[in-house]
Amino acid sequence: MNGCFITGFPGFLASMLLKEMLKLYKECEFVLLVHPSQIEKAKDLAANRPNVRLFTGDITMAGLRLSPEQTDWLKNHITHVFHLAAVYDLAVPEQIAANINITGTRNINAFVKELPHLARYVYFSTAYVSGKRTGLIKEDELDAGQTFKNHYESTKFAAEKLVAELDGVPYTIIRPGVVVGHSKTGETIKFDGPYFIMRFLDKLRYVPVPYLGKSEALFNVVPFDYIIDATLCLAESDDAVNKVFHLTDPSPYESRKLYRMICEELIGKAPSWTIPPAVVEFMLSFSFFRRFFKVEKEALEYFRCACQYDAANTSKVLVKAGVQCPDFKDYVSSMVAYYKENRKDPEKLVYIK
User: Fold this and answer.
1) Is residue 28 very low, low, confident or very high in pLDDT (cuts 50, 70, 90)?
2) What DSSP letter does each residue of 249-308 carry, written as one string?
3) Of the residues 23, 202, 243, 290, which has the fewest C-beta atoms closer than 10 A?
């Protein structure tokens, strides 16, 4: 890699991706597209890096709000583009999601088409473009007439279609599952997704703990270090050109079992009874209960998602580089330990309405 353009900085995955790439590609020049509202934070994180440039811009605007001089420089130097900027909030309003996820991707697509030295365009989608589909979901499937659980899913689906329709652009589409902390250190930036389980259990440590229904649905979580390692492998593999990859757990646990493992690790006991999911959903329809348990209602859907994500393409490419997804049971202790140490950090808490 000679020149890399990364969106989404100083977001967590973009920051972790840059950190790893700085170790591997010491001669590479990095350009980070940073929204004006995030520029001071970005400066702090990228300080003292002579091969890192910060360009203030906006993916929702034509030309990315870059100057002609910046655009010319990028055309002469950029070989790889990593598009991570998106809105990931499950409760995001439709117009905001569409503006960032769809319009933003359309503008990045237009930008990459103007790069004469482009070797790869890596687009971060999500496994949940599958929406409400059930059963086996394959990597070469996208539009199966599915409906969606929220505007995040529907706009990421529409955005991925735009990337897949690009002609003459060497793209690679990444579809992660639910991303959690580092498999060794537990480090993460936000306590959402499975961390809502921990926030819920924090309120129940002195009473008999319930299972949340009897669902046998699989819950697909992946640590971010696997996402980073896999992404960098795919970004340079000729076998990944114009293909889609599920960065998901090939052997995910049932939601009920994953819930029990977290419960035992966090509060030292297993659930002993079952509460119907309809009751939980009803309770979380009231803001008082959502704020008390610190859980988003929208998160419940992902614990009863009755589908399995096939990752055959991913396995074929990553096995050559020795990259594989860790087993949840091997890193749940690190994940919980990090949560316990940082659960009162306001920067990591997701505000619940």
Assistant:
1) very high
2) -SSPEEHHHHHHHHHHHHHS----EEE-HHHHHHHTTSHHHHHHHT--GGGGGGGS--EE
3) 23
In Å, what is the CA distance from 194 to each residue of 191, 335, 339? 8, 10, 11
pLDDT over 90 (residue 42): yes
Decide: 12 and 189 in contact? Cβ < 8 Å.
yes
The answer to whether residues 263 and 221 touch, using CB atoms and an 8 Å cutoff, is no
* DSSP assignments along 42-94, one per residue: HHHHTTT-TTEEEEE--TTSGGGG--HHHHHHHHHH--EEEE------TT--H
Report pLDDT digits (tens) over 124-136.
999 999 999 999 9
- Cα gap 199→345, rounded to integer Å: 13
Tell me the C-alpha distance between 337 and 318, whole Å.
29
Q: Which residues have a Cβ under 8 Å from the Cβ of 296 and sit 6 or more positions away? A: 90, 91, 192, 196, 284, 290, 350, 352
Q: Which range has the worst mean pLDDT, 10-14, 45-49, 228-232?
A: 45-49
pLDDT at 237 over 90: yes
- Identify any residues that bridge with 309 across adjacent strands, giving them in sequence order: 137
Q: Return the structure tokens found at 277.
A: 């999911």
8 Å CB contact between 63 and 43: no
Q: pLDDT tens, 275-319?
A: 887 888 888 888 877 887 777 777 777 777 889 999 999 999 999
In the three-class reduction of DSSP (H, G, I as helix; E, B as strand; rest coil), residue 191 is classed as strand
What is the distance between the alpha carbons of residues 119 and 89, in angstroms, rounded to a whole number?
A: 31
Structure-token pair, residue 177: 């599952």
Closest to 185 in 3D by CA, of 225, 219, 221: 225
Sort strands 3-7 and 307-309 into parallel, antiparallel or unpaired: unpaired
Closest CA to 87 of 120, 57, 61, 126: 126
pLDDT value at position 59? Answer: 98
